[in-house]
Amino acid sequence: MKATSRRTGRLRQTIQVREHRIVADELPEVGGDDAGPSPQELLAAALASCTAITMEMYAQRKGWDIGPIEVDCEYQPAERGTPTRFDLVLRLPAHLTPEQVAKLQVIAAKCPIHRTLDGEVMFRERVETAELTA
């Protein structure tokens, strides 16, 4: 998987992922134009959407017609002395059995983004110089 981010405004970034474009920016109070979600908000969005998709895919494999679901994700970045915090709220239809709800809650924690954030992460960085075009 690959994402490329290029500056297209003061702080605004246009992110290319395959044939898709996503805009990220910062709020005006930190120098942005609020042209899109901040990178931090995109992280919360990635976790919320991945969790929902993972539950939907599991339900489909089981043949469950679960109906509409929602996942809220509130994200608080780490600060001195406190860990990064993600608060997830899974909103599931009332017609599901307690067993289905319990299984979907277990499956939600197995989404790829959740596992990535919960596991060990390694970064490899390098600098390249190039003539970049706008």
Number of domains: 2
CATH topology of the largest domain: GMP Synthetase, Chain A, domain 3
Using the alpha-carbon principal axes, give the shape. Answer: elongated
Instruction: Give the ordered list of helices and strands.
Output: EEEHEEHH
User: Into which percent range does the helicity of residues fall?
Assistant: 25-40%
| Strand order, largest beta sheet | 1-2-3
The largest β sheet comes out as: 3 strands, antiparallel
| Radius of gyration using CA atoms only | 18 Å
CATH architecture of the largest domain: 2-Layer Sandwich
The count of DSSP E runs of length 2 or more, i.e. the number of strands, is 5
| CATH homology-level superfamily of the largest domain | K homology (KH) domain
DSSP summary: helix tally: 3
Overall mean pLDDT score? 94
SS-based class: alpha+beta
Span between N and C termini? Answer: 24 Å
Tell me the name of the CATH class of the largest domain.
Answer: Alpha Beta
